[in-house]
Amino acid sequence: MDQKVPALCQMFNAICYNAPMRSFPPEVEEVMIGSQDRFVWEMPAFQRYERGKTWYFGLAVLAVLMIAYAVWTANFLFAFIIFLSAIILLLVGVQDPRRVLVQVGNNGIVVDGKLHLFQDIGNFAIIYQPPLSKVLYLEPKATLAQRLRLELMDQDPVELRSHLRQYLREDLDLQGEHLSDILGRLLKI
Fold it and tell me: Which CATH code of 2.40.10, 2.30.29, 2.60.40, 2.20.25 fits the domain covering 24-46+98-187?
């Protein structure tokens, strides 16, 4: 039975991520992470928006209306999900984002201590429209892996772009931020 579980995990990774899971001994991975030092900066883990009393009142009214509709249609799971979502938005709204270290080198990109090798990244795009957005997007090759959104802060986008083009394909079709980022900024979530 114990031999079937790793086989199932490998099969799941092959199907969902379309890439072999690369694992290095901890000592090797630590050296690789430390050597990614061409560009190094810190960024907030998430964008924190100033929300006034009106925003919180609107959230409360929307949540109450949606919960009332869910109860009226006897969809209690939906009501529970709306309730949890509202609580999470309230809790995250008062929390200060922690600082995340970003390192770019010759083997890959390290975000908060997690190494993303260039061979696992499909492409990149830099959206530089200060002061509204200064963002580096990294699109993984894996089907179900999450797209990385990294704030550039004070990094020189021309130098960073030049460095990344040596290892990755640039997505020139992306001319602005993704819709999810625009909606998040407009809705302050």
Answer: 2.30.29
